[in-house]
Amino acid sequence: MGGPPALPVQFFRSTLLPAAIVVLFGLALFAVSARIWLPGDMAAPAPLS
Predict the structure, then answer these.
(1) What is the CA radius of gyration of the chain?
(2) Model pTM?
(3) Residue 18 burial (CB count, 10 A)
(4) What is the 3-state secondary structure (H, E, C) of the chain?
């Protein structure tokens, strides 16, 4: 008695997971590089006091 085919799992592992990793990397790259377009005083680290 075989269960349902493992096609959805294979689709997730071969298509959706790599796409999600690439999208997440692109989002992180955008968030880090967004400092280029900020004004100079906003791109500096926040003061401690």
Answers:
(1) 21
(2) 0.58
(3) 10
(4) CCCCCCHHHHHHHHHHHHHHHHHHHHHHHHHHHHHHHCCHHHHCCCCCC
- Give burial (CB, 10 Å; 0-12/13-18/19+) of 29: exposed
Q: What is the pLDDT of residues 3-45, one digit of tens each?
A: 566 678 888 888 899 999 999 999 999 988 887 777 766 667 7
Cα-to-chain-centroid distance, residue 12: 17
The token pair that represents 36 in the structure block: 């280029």
The two structure tokens encoding residue 46: 């926040």
